[in-house]
Amino acid sequence: MSIAPALRLKELKASDRIGISALEYSRAEGQSNFSDDIFRIELCGPGKSHLSVIDVPGIFRTTEKGKTTEEDKLLVKNMVRRYIKNPRTIVLAVVAANIDVATTEILDMAAEVDQSGQRTLGILTKPDLVDKGAEQDTMDLVRGRKKKLKLGYCVVRNRGK
Fold it and tell me: What residues contact residue 40 under an 8 Å CB cut-off, 6+ apart?
């Protein structure tokens, strides 16, 4: 019995379908978990403006043996810089609300390439994880009293499990 092509595609893991190994497979010591490849969704059509959504990895400052390398750190930072410097790019600067915004690099990188602030929007995630007593710091960000962005911040919280 033959499986219809559409059904056969559903049986494949996404990682197999796009030609990358899944995270559960172990990597050799020092082998990168990152590549210069990106996840891109393109929307276009007759009478529609062309829109590309590109998701790049988040910037990280420290490496973890067996998971990330100094080369990974540099690759990710350069990839982010390459995409956000395009003047047609809208920068969605994603920052966890439960960490000190002063320690994040993305807002500084965005300010370097978008000096007018016309294309940078802050996205605050994990507001439910903000430490008790630190709620005012998060509200100061949202209200533009701290690390102000011209387009402001949007707060996003995933549904609980």
Answer: 52, 53, 54, 55
Phi, psi of 153 (to 5 degrees): -125, 150
Three-class DSSP category at 89: coil
Q: What is the pLDDT of residues 111-122, one digit of tens each?
A: 999 999 999 999
Biggest CA pair distance of the chain: 65
SS3 content of the chain, % helix, strand, coil (to 5): 30, 15, 55
Whole-model pTM over 0.85: no
pLDDT tens for 91-104 read 999 999 998 888 88
Name the helix (H) or strand (E) containing 72. helix 70-84
